[in-house]
Specification:
Layout lengths: L15 H6 L2 E2 L7 E2 L4 H10 L5 H13 L1 H26 L6 H15 L3 E5 L2 E5 L11 H12 L7 E3 L8 E3 L12 H21 L1
Antiparallel strand pairs: 1-2, 3-4, 5-6
This protein binds zinc ion.
């Protein structure tokens, strides 16, 4: 199975929905680099996120071989959902107005997700599932939608940030106690900013 070559950033968003928006690199650039290049990579990412089981993944890949057009369609839907979520959470992170058209796209997927919801017995209690749709090729979209809904309705929404390294475009939920996280990672954009500051300081000293 082809792998997404961004393993290091896979979990950087701290929330499933934000990890999903980070499946395009340099997302804030005019032409980002797509990581979800085919349905296989969507399955691979979903396995990494543990939103589908290994058995489910195998079944979905078999399905994709039988119905490649359906697989393509699912990927297109996934990307449509991701892009709407990216614009929406980016707007929130940068105190911009969320576009009604982006909310409408999300709501369309929310409607589909909630038509599949079932409450099932689990351990000594109950669990919220999308069990009805779990054999379908787009089954990985519903937990992502659920994660976006949860985040939008939670107090953590004020912790959603866009990496300050432009045009990195990585979104994350800042879980640090004093809300001080600024970068996707210190090794990446954090370091670049540090190098830039150092360079600017030297330039000032020279002039
Ligand atoms: Zn970054």
């Amino acid at each position: 199975m082809s792998k997404i070559n961004t393993n290091a950033v896979t979990f950087i968003g701290e929330r499933l929905c934000l990890n999903f928006t980070n499946t395009a690199s340099w997302h804030n650039r005019e032409q980002p680099i797509e990581q979800l290049v085919n349905y296989e990579t969507l399955i691979y990412w979903s396995r990494q996120m543990e939103i589908i089981t290994a058995t489910q993944g195998k079944h979905l890949l078999e399905q994709a071989e039988i119905s490649p057009i359906e697989a393509e369609k699912t990927l297109a839907h996934a990307i449509e959902l991701r892009e709407a979520m990216f614009r929406l959470f980016k707007a929130i992170a940068t105190n911009q107005q969320v576009k009604p058209s982006d909310l409408a796209i999300l709501n369309n997927y929310v409607n589909q997700a909630y038509s599949l919801v079932e409450i099932v017995p689990k351990d000594s209690g109950y669990a919220f599932t999308f069990q009805k749709g779990q054999q379908k090729m787009d089954c990985m979209l519903w937990p992502i939608v659920q994660s976006a809904v949860d985040l939008l309705l939670s107090e953590d929404l004020s912790r959603v940030k866009l990496c300050e390294g432009e045009p990195c475009g990585i979104l994350f939920c800042d879980v640090s106690r004093n809300k001080s996280r600024r970068w996707c990672s210190m090794e990446d954009c954090g370091n670049r900013a540090k190098a830039q500051r150092h360079y600017n300081k030297k330039k000032i000293q020279k002039t």
